[in-house]
Amino acid sequence: MLYVIGGQKGGTGKSTLATNLAVALTLRGRQVLLVDTDRQATATHWGDVRQADERLPPVTLVQKTGKLYRTLRDLEDRYQDVIVDAGGFDSVELRTALAAADALYSPVRASQSDLWTLEAMSALVTEARELNERLRAYLVLSMAPTHPSVIETEAARALLGDYPAFTLCDALLRDRKAFRDAVFQGRGVLELGDPKAAHEVSTLTSEILLHDPEAPRVPQALAQAS
Amino acid sequence: MTQKPPVFRKPSRKPREEPPGLDAFAAGAPPALGVSPPAAPAPPVSEPAAVTAPAEESETHGMNVRFTTSEKDTIERLAAKEERSQHQIIKRLLRPVLEGARSSLDG
């Protein structure tokens, strides 16, 4: 599968999602390639730190800028999962990756400034689908408040349903220190000791895998019985 | 540590050729910030042109270089004598050497 993690707003947790998804899929025994096209190179720095720690299972990472279509087509034949960290703005990299991708996952925070960017992102996805009709697009509620009484998250969920170009993921990532710590340590939160953050990433990864239309399905009766 | 068995991927059924219209779609992206090399800063009037980077190569990079005390002393004295910064002295001295080295490497 070729996943693009992107959007048109910085600071929403795209590299956090990309690196944690890469680790989560790697820990599930999949062959994963992380492609960093973001000029901030957060994922690349993360990869450098990770590479220096021999205790961690390696995640292959490459940096690539410019037009990505053919490169990604080649790479996805060699890896089970290719994850593109496409940065937080409209770019040649984001557009050419969308033309090749199976799915876009766009993290958004429960804030008005993030929601305002969705109109443009929604139009971009619609345009990309004219070139790539397979493209599925999902929003991931990211950096959501951890306090259970905060209703901002639920209000954002209601608003995010207004963008038909996207499907909102059930799983969400909350604003936890573990995510920030993991980036600095070249790890995913699944490799740290924070069970809540780990549960969030694990749940989201399972949901993402289920989005694959070619994924093997568990018969409903069997799923209910288990 | 056990080696993971290689996973043989069936080739993608997706078209390998770029879809028509991809270039136009890609061209719709705004210019990337920080990608275009910034315009070369105009040199100060008192600055000889040889010290500034060539106009066609205005992107510059910072490097940390350590000098011995005597080398540093020489740079300081040259800077004082020419009434220019130590950075400018180093660049003036290094650029011709690097140009020559590049010509030699390029054959």
Describe it.
The complex is a heterodimer of chains A (226) and B (107). Chain A starts with a strand and ends with a helix. The mean pLDDT of chain A is 89. With 226 residues, chain A is α/β, with parallel strands linked by helices. Chain A has helices spanning 14-27, 42-52, 69-75, 92-100, 112-131, 152-160, 177-184, 195-211, 220-225, and strands spanning 2-5, 32-36, 60-63, 81-85, 103-109, 136-142, 167-168. Chain B is 38% helix and 0% strand. Chain B is built from 3 helices and no strands. In chain B, α2 (69-82) crosses α3. Residues 34-52 of chain B have low confidence and may be disordered. Chain B has a domain at 66-107. The longest helix of chain B is centred in the C-terminal third of the chain and has 21 residues, at 86-106. Chain B has 107 residues and is mainly alpha-helical. Chain B is elongated and about 65 Å long. The A-B interface holds A 29, 31, 39, 67, 69-70, 73, 76-80, 89-92, 94-96, 99-100, 127-128, 130-132, 134 and B 4, 7, 9, 11-12, 14, 16, 18-19, 21-22, 25-30, 32-35.
Assembly state of the chains shown: heterodimer
Number of helices of chain B: 3
Which runs of chain A of at least 5 residues are low in confidence (pLDDT < 50)?
none
Q: What gross morphology of chain A would you assign?
A: globular
Largest interface: A-B, 27 and 21 residues
**Proportion of helical residues of chain A:** 40-55%
Biggest sheet descriptor of chain B: none
Q: Uncertain runs of chain B with pLDDT below 50, 5 residues or more? A: 34-52
Radius of gyration of chain B: 25 Å
In the sheet with the most strands of chain A, the strands line up as 3-2-4-1-5-6-7
